[in-house]
UniProtKB/TrEMBL annotation:
SUPFAM superfamilies cross-referenced by the UniProt entry: MFS general substrate transporter
Signal peptide residues on this chain, from the entry's feature table: none
Any single Pfam family the record assigns to this protein: MFS_1
Matches recorded under Gene3D superfamilies: MFS general substrate transporter like domains
Xref: InterPro entries: MFS (IPR011701), MFS_dom (IPR020846), MFS_trans_sf (IPR036259), Proton-linked_MCT (IPR050327)
Identification of the protein by name: Major facilitator superfamily MFS_1
Molecular-function annotations in GO: transmembrane transporter activity
Keywords from the named record: Membrane, Transmembrane, Transmembrane helix
Length: 391
């Protein structure tokens, strides 16, 4: 096949997965930001429990992720991503028809399985399974698409709530997964051959990690735990933290809106580099930018916009590094399985982070919450630097 045809084929796969990721993230992780208030107001269910559905979903995704990675290693990502579309659709149907809170939370159990099969880590593993050691540019481009999830889905969710109510919005997302996500996966994501017994890839996967690789695995898991916790804490509590420092609500929302463009801009810069540097550079720079941004916020300096641009840029390329660093450290043969294992601790941290942040705000105030965020970000800089020893 001609190189330009190969390039067009790869672009079609990445573009399809990009739309899949926008809808997967927008209809799960970013859903409560818009729908939680209308749901609580309409049903009378406690807001904490309505928002807590996301934590339940993340915990389910965490415990499913190792098996998801193994399934992608054996069968490729296409069937797993197709299952994700079906699970997300089914979960949204349950949400939309839920007569009471227990059924609503059961819907999040189903959505959690869909998240475990369809968010970044399975998509990265799919690209690793398809393209092997050459998957890095594809992973980088995919995160550029994913950066638009909240930009697309927050206004879409608000429009749907206004037009058809929160239940109609959930059912609409179910329909989108069936008529958009599922056909894109089945039509444009090629099947990857399962690893056959006796192949080098199978033998490589059966080998235990060396002592150095185990150290790298644990360090990377620590990065994902702290990185996931920081990202979720900022996503959930940023507006409250800014208001606690005297920033008006409208200004706080405007400042928060800087994060998305900063993420995308940083990913474009990373793409422009075309993989000329080791992914550990991406990870190290990401952690430094996040720590600098949070340090400015914690110090209370009048540079909120600069702080959030730095944070957003760091968080943007961190999403790339979490996919490319394991590929570089452990190789393509073991990539899908190890990505699945690495996803678990990070997802657990994301599930627990909102409650941790709420406790810090309740018992220590905004200063304690800012200090907690900076301490985790600074520790992550140390973990990123330590990873260079297992390069």
């Amino acid at each position: 096949m001609r190189p330009d045809a190969v390039g067009r084929g790869r672009l079609a796969v990445i573009s399809a997965l990009g739309v899949v990721e926008i809808l997967a993230w927008g209809s799960s992780f970013y859903l409560p930001a818009v729908l939680a208030g209308p749901i609580a107001a309409d049903t009378g269910w406690p807001l904490a429990w309505v928002v807590g559905g996301l934590s339940i979903g993340l915990l389910v995704a965490a415990f499913a992720s190792p098996r998801v990675g193994l399934a992608i290693h054996r069968h490729g990502g296409r069937p797993v991503l197709a299952l994700a579309a079906l699970l997300l659709a089914a979960g949204h149907v349950v949400l939309g028809l839920a007569p009471n809170l227990p059924v609503f939370l059961a819907g999040w159990l189903v959505i959690g399985l869909g998240m475990g099969c369809g968010l970044y880590d399975p998509a990265f593993a799919t690209l690793g399974r398809l393209y092997g050691a050459e998957a890095r540019p594809a992973i980088t481009t995919l995160t550029l698409w994913g950066g638009f999830a909240s930009t697309v889905c927050w206004p879409l969710s608000a429009l749907l709530v206004e037009q058809v109510g929160w239940r109609g919005a959930c059912l609409a997302y179910a329909g989108l997964h069936l008529v958009v996500t599922l056909p894109l996966v089945l039509g444009l994501v090629p099947p990857a051959p399962a690893a056959e017994p006796g192949t080098a890839g199978t033998h490589r996967m059966a080998e235990p990690l060396t002592a150095r690789e185990r150290r790298g695995f644990l360090l990377m898991a620590g990065v994902l735990v702290l990185g996931g916790a920081v990202m979720t804490l900022v996503s959930v509590h940023l507006i409250a933290l800014l208001q606690a420092r005297g920033v008006a609500l409208a200004a706080a929302v405007s400042y928060g809106a800087l994060i998305g463009p900063a993420q995308v801009a940083a990913r474009v810069v990373e793409m422009a580099a075309k993989g000329r540097h080791h992914p550990l550079w991406t990870l190290t720079v990401a952690m430094i930018l996040v720590a600098l941004g949070l340090a400015l916020l914690a110090a209370g300096l009048p540079a909120v916009g600069v702080a959030l641009v730095l944070y957003g840029a760091g968080n943007g390329i961190y999403s790339i590094a979490r996919g490319t660093v394991p590929l570089a450290l452990f190789g393509p043969a073991r990539y899908p399985v190890l990505v699945g294992r690495l996803a678990r601790p990070g997802l657990v941290a994301q599930a627990l982070a909102p409650s941790l942040g709420a406790m810090a705000l309740t018992y220590g105030g905004a200063d304690a919450a800012y200090a907690l965020l900076f301490a985790m970000a600074a520790a992550n800089v140390g973990l990123a630097v330590a990873l260079w020893s297992v390069r």
